[in-house]
Write a structure and sequence with these properties.
This protein is an alpha+beta fold and 448 residues long. Helix content is 22%, strand content 38%. The protein folds into 2 domains: 215 residues, PmbA/TldD fold, CATH 3.30.2290; 116 residues, no CATH class.
């Protein structure tokens, strides 16, 4: 047995001796990160992520504790702490031990078996290649802000006092760079990040060139004008907006009355062109996994279908509390955190028009490629106020770059204004994916 399996068994044994049901989540992985600046290695880091998170269930109450020390004494102490914490808080009969069933494995690779054999030198070479590709893209690209290559490989497992067990291996790699382009005394920055199952799955040249292209494309930006225009949202912007809206689909928030979607099941909440789902079994997606944070089998959960609210995301508590819905929509942020409701791969179903056709249909308007301030969106109301940049749309074609634009509104109202959905779906490192969107009209505040 591995150290984490032994620790899990010891934790459950400790809880059982106290007459409590228990759940133990364990992780065991290695994270590597290299950073390169001006061709020189700035840092190399390798660390182990190892530990267990313990939940103890006692008469409608739950306690949580964790430890990264898997010695028998530390494990017993953490289990005893979870048991003690379960004495506190209000009693709710919906708090009971999750009882997940067996899950089918993913029908596609979820890790790169060769990642473990990739030497640090190859990661450094990749980071240097990213930086070199950015700097050689165009003479206007004068510098970069650190080129980063990082990857994780490991296993997660879960066991309960009812005998349920689940586990899987996973691997993820990320690479990114900020390219800085200058012209006529002004500078612009372009950022790009890509992901794969392992460091060998990332094309460093494409990462560097895309970041550089974004920086160069923003040179010469003029202030956006004020008015109401048709707007095409770049798919990266769409993904960010959907991520800001994601908490609204939590059944826990619905129960608390802190979701703008509460009481609207079956109602039209978006344009009929919008179908949105959480799909943890999507090949190539960053958040794909066979079981959720409580060990329940993952599945595609449709949230909005043809513009109508079709469902919510549930954990074992909300499913028991509401008597509706199916658990299986929780994630873990490591062994130090209990499971929380969140999408794993929130995906907007693509349409049939390419991005160029969306721009053509917009006619005269604006293409927004970057936004700032998404973290300030209100998860209770869905209201937002953002800054951004992009390009004018003139006679159905992309025109000159613009910046210093601002727009405010509501995330659900924005989805209701969708005229058409693009076919250019991209999967993003944050988990999930989106295509470009054409909005009928958006009020833009420029700097004029």
């Amino acid at each position: 047995m591995s150290g984490r399996e032994t620790a899990a068994g010891l934790a459950l044994e400790t809880l059982g001796g106290l007459g409590l049901d228990g759940e133990v989540y364990a992780e065991d992985g290695v994270r590597v990160r290299v950073a390169v600046s001006e061709g020189k290695v700035e840092s190399v880091e390798e660390r182990s992520d190892r530990g267990i998170g313990i939940r103890a269930f006692r008469d409608g109450k739950v306690g949580f504790a964790f430890t990264t020390d898997l010695s028998s004494g530390a494990v017993r102490q953490a289990a005893a702490l979870a048991a003690e914490l379960s004495r506190h808080g209000g009693r709710d009969e919906a708090w009971r031990l999750p009882r997940p069933g067996a899950a089918d494995p993913l029908p596609f690779p979820n890790e790169d078996p060769e990642a473990e054999t990739v030497p640090i030198s190859r990661r450094i070479d990749a980071a240097r290649a990213i930086e070199s590709a950015a700097l050689s893209f165009d003479p206007k690209v004068r510098a970069t802000r650190r080129s980063i290559v990082t990857d994780y490989r490991g296993t997660v497992s879960l066991a309960t006092s009812a005998g349920a067990t689940a586990g899987y291996g996973l691997g993820r790699a990320l690479a990114w760079v900020d390219a800085i382009a200058s012209e006529n005394g002004s500078s612009q920055t372009g950022h790009f990040v890509e992901h794969a199952l392992g460091p060998g799955g990332i094309d460093p040249v494409s990462v560097g060139r895309e970041a550089a292209a974004r920086a160069v494309g923003k040179l010469g930006s003029a202030p956006a004008r004020t008015g109401r225009f048709p707007v095409v949202l770049d798919r990266e912007v769409v993904s960010g907006l959907l991520d800001a809206l994601a908490p609204a689909f939590s059944a826990r928030r619905v129960l608390k009355g802190t979701s703008p979607l509460a009481g609207r099941l079956g109602m039209l909440v978006a344009s009929p062109a919008v179908t949105l789902a959480d799909d943890p079994r999507l090949p190539g997606a960053y958040g794909s996994c066979p079981v959720d944070g409580e060990g329940f089998p993952t599945r595609r959960t449709v949230l909005i279908e043809g513009g109508r609210l079709a469902g919510f995301l549930h954990d074992a508590y909300s499913a028991a509390k509401t008597g509706a819905g199916t658990p299986g929509n929780t994630v873990r942020e490591g062994c130090a955190s209990p499971p929380k409701i969140a999408p794993m791969n929130l995906v907007l179903e693509p349409g049939y028009m390419d991005a160029g056709t969306l721009v053509e249909r917009a006619g005269e308007g604006l293409w927004i490629s970057e936004v700032m301030g998404l973290h300030t969106a209100d998860p209770i109301s869905g209201d937002f106020s953002l800054g951004g940049s992009g390009r004018l749309i003139e006679r159905g074609r992309l025109g000159p770059p613009v910046d210093r634009l601002a727009f405010a509104g509501n995330l659900l109202e924005l989805l209701a204004s969708v005229e058409a959905v693009g076919s250019d779906l991209r999967l993003f490192p944050e988990g999930g994916g989106a295509p470009s969107l054409l909005l009928r009209e958006l009020s833009i505040a420029g700097s004029e």
